């Protein structure tokens, strides 16, 4: 097996089919990677290639994202962080019960936290890039930033979504902007629902209850960097750091720095009740 080759497949769950990417040897320790909205597991491909010789990696598309089925009329509540976390728990059970680490970025950080909060059988370390302890200002501006673009014959909805994605990081490569634009457009009228799910989620309650060690960081150019300190105050034990100049696409654009943090954290001794700060990664 070439551990750098990313394999793709579908898990058949009660909620529908869940598309996922997989890399590394399944006999190695498993890391779960959860993506931001409106992205997919594709945002982790560079990191998966880099880490595949050390870990077994699973990067599912959350329900309704990428190539995964939406929840629709499945026997589970609609698009909420809780329902997504429960679906991912079922997905993980299809592969292994011995996940040692769960990594999430933005929306994925919310789902990752809720996953370990609701399903403590996954006694995994938690790694969060851009934790979503939204303050009042973010909750007020997020709905407008996440509004759907109704389809129009003149194609202005295409331009609107493109500009939204490009504004996240004007220096980002065009292939990333195109990928995220396509994924956002594919969500159609459901696009705002993902962000509303994050707004309505009681993140403080979930993160405060996590007993496993937590790695919490954000890029200094990430809009969620502003809430990093307050979010870390809720953690029982863990490590806080930052990635210099990292943006909302830090996992795509700074994969080496993120992977180095994962490696370091997964072997670090984190004493019960201790909270430490590491120097900034670049």
Automatic annotation (TrEMBL):
Q: Which GO terms of the cellular component aspect does the record hold?
A: membrane
Give the domain of life.
Bacteria
In this chain the AB hydrolase-1 domain maps to: 29-224
- Record-linked InterPro entries: AB_hydrolase_1, AB_hydrolase_fold, AB_hydrolase_sf
Q: What is this protein called?
A: AB hydrolase-1 domain-containing protein
Q: Cite the source lineage.
A: Bacteria, Pseudomonadati, Pseudomonadota, Gammaproteobacteria, Cellvibrionales
């Amino acid at each position: 097996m070439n551990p750098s080759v990313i394999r793709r497949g579908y898990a058949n769950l009660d909620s529908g089919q869940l598309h996922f990417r997989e890399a590394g040897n399944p006999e190695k320790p498993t890391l779960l990677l959860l993506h931001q909205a409106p992205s997919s597991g594709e945002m982790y491909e560079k990191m998966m290639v880099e880490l595949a010789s050390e870990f077994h990696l699973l990067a599912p598309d959350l329900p309704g994202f990428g190539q995964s089925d939406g929840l629709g009329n499945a026997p589970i509540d609609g698009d909420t962080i809780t329902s997504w976390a429960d679906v991912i728990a079922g997905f993980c059970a299809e592969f292994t019960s011995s996940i040692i680490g769960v990594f999430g970025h933005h929306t994925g950080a919310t789902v990752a936290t809720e996953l370990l909060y609701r399903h403590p059988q996954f006694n995994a370390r938690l790694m969060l890039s851009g934790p979503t302890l939204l303050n009042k200002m973010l909750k007020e501006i997020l709905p407008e930033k996440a509004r759907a673009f109704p389809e129009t014959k003149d194609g202005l909805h295409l331009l609107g979504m493109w500009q939204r994605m490009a504004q996240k990081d004007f220096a980002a490569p065009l292939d990333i902007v195109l990928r995220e634009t396509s994924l956002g457009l594919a969500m159609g009228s459901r696009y705002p629902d993902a962000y509303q799910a994050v707004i309505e989620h009681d993140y403080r309650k979930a993160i405060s209850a996590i007993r496993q060690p937590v790695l919490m960081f954000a890029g200094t150019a990430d809009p969620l960097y502003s809430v990093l300190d307050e979010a870390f105050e809720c953690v029982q034990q863990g490590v806080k750091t930052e990635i210099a100049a990292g943006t909302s696409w830090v996992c795509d654009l700074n994969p080496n720095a993120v992977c180095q943090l994962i490696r370091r954290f997964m072997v670090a001794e984190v004493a019960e009740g201790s909270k430490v700060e590491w120097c900034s990664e670049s």
